[in-house]
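INTERNAL AUDIT FORM
Audit reference: QA-55
Scope: verify that the stored structure record matches its stored sequence.
Auditor: D.O.
Record contents follow.
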Amino acid sequence: MSFLKKWYDKVSRKKQFTTLYRRGEEIYGNGYVLFEMGNYEEALEKYNEAAAIWGELENKLSELEDDMEDDLNTLRKKCQNVLYSRCFVLYRMGRHEEALEVIDSFLEEDPQDAGKWFGHGFVMQSIGQHQKAIESFSKCLDLDPAFSDAWYCKATLLYQNDEFTEALKCYDRAAQHSNVKDFAFPQYSFLNINPKPKLKKDAAGILYGKGNTLFKLERFEEAIEAFTEAIDIEPESPQIWQGLANTYLKIGNNDRADMAFAKLLELDPENSQAQDHIKPASPAEDKE
C-alpha cells in the first residue's frame, strides 16, 4: 500500500504542478497580447504574476526528492524570460532607467550574454548616452561578431558622430550578417543546368545608411549603388528614393534625379523637396 500511496501522491503532485504551470503560461500569454495592444501597465502586471507563479512552482519542485532537474531547468528559463521581458514593457512606457535596471541585473548574473548587451546599448542609445551605447554594442559584438543589429546600431551612432569611415565598416559588417529576406530560383530555372538563385537580404535600412555614409565621404557612385540595392529590397521607401535623387543631383545627372524625385513624389506627395523639384509646367510653358 505504501508503494501505491507514493505513486498516487506523485501523480497528484504532477497534476497540480501541470495546472500551475499552464496557469503561468496563460497569464504570460495574456501579458504578451496586452503588450502588443499597447496596454503596458496591464502587461507588466501579467508578467510579474506569471513570474511569481513559475517561481513558486520552481520552489516546490526543488523541494522534491524526485529527479526533476529537466523540469526545474525549464521553469528557471521561463522565469528568466518573463522577468527579462519586463524591460521591453518598461522601455515602451518610457521608464528607461527601470528598463536598464532589469538588463543590468541580468548582466550581473551572465555578462557573456550578447543579446542583453545589445538591449543595454539600445536603451542607452534611446536616452542619448551614445558613447555608452557604442561601448555596449561593442561588447555585444565581441561576444557575437555576427550580431547584425548591433553592427547597424553602432554604425548609426558613429555616423551621427561624423566618424564616417568607421561607420562604413560597421554598415558593411551589418549587411554581411543580415538575415535572408527572400530566396527564390529564377523563373524556369529547371531549363538551366547551373541556375543562379536570387537571394535578397533584409538589409534595406543598412544599405540606406551605407549610402548616406558614402555620400558624406563623397564616394557618390558607390552611394548610388548602395541606394539602388536598397531600393531593390524596399522599392516603396521614400527616404531611399530621396537619398538616390540627391546623389544624382550632386553628380549633375539631372535626368536620373528627375526620375528619382518623380518616384519620391508618387510615394510621398507631401515631400517638400520633391514638390520643389517637380514643379508643374506654367500655362506659358505649356503653350510653348
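Auditor finding: record pair retrieved intact. Residues 2-37 form the longest helix (36 residues).
Action required: none
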